[in-house]
Write a structure and sequence with these properties.
Length: 325
Amino acid sequence: MKNFSEKIWNESEYSYDAAYGFIPEIHAYLHDDNEPRDCMLVVPGGGYCMCVPHEGEPVAEEFYNRGMNAFVLSYTTDITMSVPLYRQPLKDISRAVRFIRKNAEAYGISGKKLIICGFSAGAHVCGSLAVHFDDVKDENPDYADISNRPDGAILSYPVITFGEYTHIYSVQTLIGKEPSAEDLEYFSLEKQVKPDTPPCFIWQTQTDELVPVENSYLFAKALRAQKIPYAHYVFPAGFHGLSIANDAFFSGNTHGEYTLDQVMKAVKAVKEGNGVNVSAQRKAELEAQFPDEPSGPPAAPPIDMSWQEDAGLWPSLAEAWIKRL
């Protein structure tokens, strides 16, 4: 396997007030041969506050083992919840798709499908590109003429709506605590599906305690209204953040902590008194959440190994769906 990281923006073209030296990047999991393969771009969730590791590398490795070349995107987030992100994560995934396609021959994906796969807020990033890809122009001439429309989108327990059934912290971190009606409408993805939206694969559990399952139904209904091909699976049980329901996930043996790079840079800056617009309350919360001497990982939620028998099948179902595209 070939592993490496690439910054998707030049320093001169990337600007976000709360970046703290972070620049979005892709981390590669490529087969060490010359055989062209379909590509999976994995986009972790984390409420737009972070990119959680267990929704990055384990997913990339799963689809790598199924014969695809894969990447994990570390996009712009804000753990301080102080500087609204607005369209920066959408710009990040748009550039990532163009960046990968520009290097398609080197990455072994020339002429093959490029699928984006997001989780929770990361699924909102993917869904935003699926419905708004034609809004995102790239000012860099090296990428301006490269398509940013994915060949398909996998949306895992997705944040979709900014209406009644939303995940409020994702809303606040993305567009602020007093968002405009225009921004709420734009990022309510069920209202933005168009005839050229790419095919989508949606999955969620009925018992999701963080993002209501209605999000999945709203998007599936919107896709059907526009006659967009889609698959939609709602499994009977499982917690939010289930990711790849396999033995490694349930044992906690997941890796890929590189996705937390921006978080750790931001926390360090806040502790040193260099946070951008960070309130005293949020500073105290971050100091408690990220102590200088960690007491150990938080307790894992209760696990039912039978989830592997239904929700754990989603990668196989997605693999079959990809073959149909």
